[in-house]
Write a structure and sequence with these properties.
This protein is α/β, with parallel strands linked by helices and 455 residues long. Helices cover 36% and strands 17% of the residues. The strands form four sheets. It has a six-stranded mixed β-sheet, sandwiched between helices. The protein has a four-stranded parallel β-sheet with strand order 5-4-3-6, sandwiched between helices. Helix 1 packs across helix 2 and helix 9 crosses helix 10. The longest helix has 17 residues. The N and C termini lie far apart (59 Å).
Length: 455
């Protein structure tokens, strides 16, 4: 087939099954590999949509200049559209973005203005503010504003969603994607949920971003905002393309876990992808481990190509300098479990046991916290200090069933969660749980993590 220009090759990217990384997970885990787009990222889809919608509206006229704030991939998509249609481009970028991204944009004729990362969005130096100012100052210019331009989500509603539905023959049950501008997550989710309202959507966020807490509490908490390294996901603003009603769950992923998983995708699956792809897969697998059932089909979006990150996550020295390459024996939950040499047995109580029986077990084994099971599934937990407080207040509770006094379950974590993630998840009195490859449940306590750090 012969195409009239490069932009006609956008879309219809392949779906690929994860094999090694999804081993042990019930159901099927597929990835939609967006680096097959001509600009090597999914942003090509919404870039051409924003440009063509602006042309139809008369906002973008012949000889005009496209001005946008970008983490790199949107810029590439806009640049390709500009080359094909005869426009100029100026892009503003935060200085945390990789040198490769900047160089690639310059290679396709764009001008790049680099702005500081660690400033508020409304600071005149931020890449948002600089883009808006350039748009005001330059005649016949168009500022797409991918964050609030609903053509972004519309592009994925019209293309990505239908492609996934067709390629899975309508069997998709779970959709997972990183959330940055929100376009790919929400546009795709809207289409999929219209076909099947039971499709579960999982948004991947990063520590330092506001999305997860806002979804769960409705509070925009500025204390959640702090610098992070991962590019392309998370925000310190609430873009109009993020429709929280379309995102069922959020999972946060650390910079380190994202970087490590990105490298694993290349080495174990042959998928040479970008940093936020590692975030998406790590978070999605963490969710899938506990929630996918036989017959379920999860699709994860892999947004871009690894060439953008050769100087970062694919560079051993850079990884080591950021503490992302550890030589410690216990670097993950998997390693902690391996050191138990199969001799471990999870201590637990049933929700139908009496509180007196639970206290006897905890005292006899000198443990301060224990999971509560019902038909083999974790349904709650007990911690000695909270249990003691309840019994002091009402001594009769010692004779009731555990179900009446139990607390929420300890959190499950992915088998490959690193020590920094484990330590951040272990609350003041709670441990975490993890399933091994044989589907056995293990508990990891503060003591286990401290011991691992000293090895």
């Amino acid at each position: 087939m012969i195409y009239n220009s490069i932009i006609e090759t956008i879309g219809n990217t392949p779906m690929i099954r994860l094999n090694k990384l999804a081993k042990g997970i019930k159901g099927e885990v597929l990835v939609k590999v967006e680096y097959f787009n001509p600009g090597n990222s999914m942003k090509d889809r919404m870039a051409i949509k924003m440009v063509e919608d602006a042309e139809k509206a008369g906002i973008l006229k012949p000889g005009g200049t496209i001005i946008e704030g970008t983490s790199g991939n949107t810029g590439m998509g806009l640049a390709l559209a500009a080359v094909a249609k005869g426009y100029k481009c100026i892009f503003t970028m935060a200085d945390k973005q990789s040198k490769e991204k900047i160089d690639i944009l310059k290679a396709v004729g764009a001008e790049v203005v680099v702005c500081p990362t660690n400033v508020t969005p409304d600071d005149p130096r931020s890449y948002y503010s600089v883009a808006r100012k350039l748009n005001q100052d330059i005649p016949n210019s168009f500022y797409p504003n991918q964050y609030d331009n609903l053509s972004n989500a519309a592009a994925h509603y019209e293309t990505t969603g239908p492609e996934i539905w067709k390629d899975t023959e309508g069997k998709i049950t779970h959709y997972a994607a990183g959330v940055g501008t929100g376009g790919s997550m929400c546009g795709t989710a809207k289409f999929l949920k219209e076909q099947n309202p039971n499709v579960v959507t999982v948004g991947i966020d990063t520590y330092g971003s506001v999305f997860k807490k806002y979804k769960e509490t409705g509070v925009f908490d500025e204390k959640e905002i702090y610098p992070y390294l991962t590019e392309g996901i998370g925000e310190d603003i609430l873009p109009k393309n993020v429709d929280f009603s379309l995102i069922d769950h959020f999972i946060k992923v650390t910079d380190k876990d994202a970087a490590v998983m990105t490298r694993r995708l290349a080495k174990e699956e042959g998928l040479f992808v970008g940093w936020s792809c590692g975030s998406a897969v790590h978070g999605a697998l963490e969710y899938a481990k506990e929630n996918l059932k036989e017959g379920d089909v999860m699709v994860i979006i892999l947004p871009d190509h690894g060439t953008r990150y050769l100087g970062k996550v694919y560079n051993d020295e850079w990884m080591r300098n950021h503490g992302f390459l550890e030589d410690k024996t216990f670097s993950t939950a998997r390693d902690i479990i391996a050191q138990r040499n199969g001799s471990y047995h999870l201590l637990s109580v049933k929700k139908s046991d009496s509180v007196k029986e639970a206290i006897g077990l905890m005292n006899g084994k000198s443990i301060s916290q224990i999971p509560v099971l019902d038909k083999g599934e974790v349904v709650g937990s007990l911690t000695d200090n909270k249990l003691l407080s309840k019994i002091i207040e009402n001594p009769q509770l010692k004779d009731v069933e555990v179900a009446e006094v139990m607390e929420p379950s300890m959190k499950f974590v992915a088998l490959d969660s690193t020590l920094d993630v484990l330590s951040s998840m272990v609350e003041k009195e709670k441990a975490v749980l993890v399933r091994d490859m044989m589907d056995n449940i293990h508990i990891i306590t503060k003591h286990d993590i401290l011991d691992a750090f000293t090895k």
